[in-house]
Write the structure tokens for this entry.
Amino acid sequence: MTTRVAIVGASGKLGTIVRAVIAAEPGYEEHALLGSRSALSELDGADLVVDVSTPASSVDVVRAAVERGIPILVGTSGWSAERIALVRPLVAASGSPAVFIPNFSLGSVIGSALAAAAAPFFSSIVIVETHPNAEGGSPSGTAVRTAELMADARSEAGPVEAPHGDQRARGQQVASIPIHSLRLQGVAARQQVVFGAPGETLTIAHDTTTPAAAYAPGISLAMRETVRASGVVVGLDSFIDIGLRVGAPGPGPDIDDGAAPGGQASGTFSA
């Protein structure tokens, strides 16, 4: 059975990658290619909608797809948890799934999961994300998703320390975590999550160097899973098992450090 796909934002950079994936994958065909001036009635007859448009138009695209009972995969930025909550009742009433993917890169998904795993151990956290200056929205969907994941992981620890948050140069706070958005020529995409503690810092960084190669496997997976999903699904990590347990720090294993040279602990850990 062939899945007919309508792509909204088909002429953009991500839309071009989606088209390449559809051309390479068996079982898919392009049903409609929509741009900024297209009528949303062109979605009629599609089996799947892929929205890679703009934050300003994405809400209307999601609403149009859900009202028609067509599964929709959303790769457009700007969908925070609060914004997704606004369409949950509509999705629930229609019975048609809506899948929101802030980043199709597996490396980015793993980076965000690692950041969430580290978050309960640090009270000072900042995200710095960099994209080309043509990038429309800020902060990026990936940064927002990462902040929300870290905030969830810190549910027992509480908000991070972000003094002087009223100063614009301190970044935009998402779930209490400051995000700094840089828009520059000569870059592809980079996100750094910087954790601070007395006497040390930890940085988790992800770079996208070739978007087509980085995003294509995730797009393929997300399209395959969207048509059989139910309700609202957020994040590529919903479809893959990264193998990380995220939660507040608990008591660790006993360590015998008596014989270790240089004050370093000796002993074994069990996962």
About this structure: Residues 173 and 179 are 6 Å apart (CA to CA). The first helix runs from residue 13 to 24. Helices lie at 13-24, 55-67, 81-94, 106-118, 141-153, 211-226.
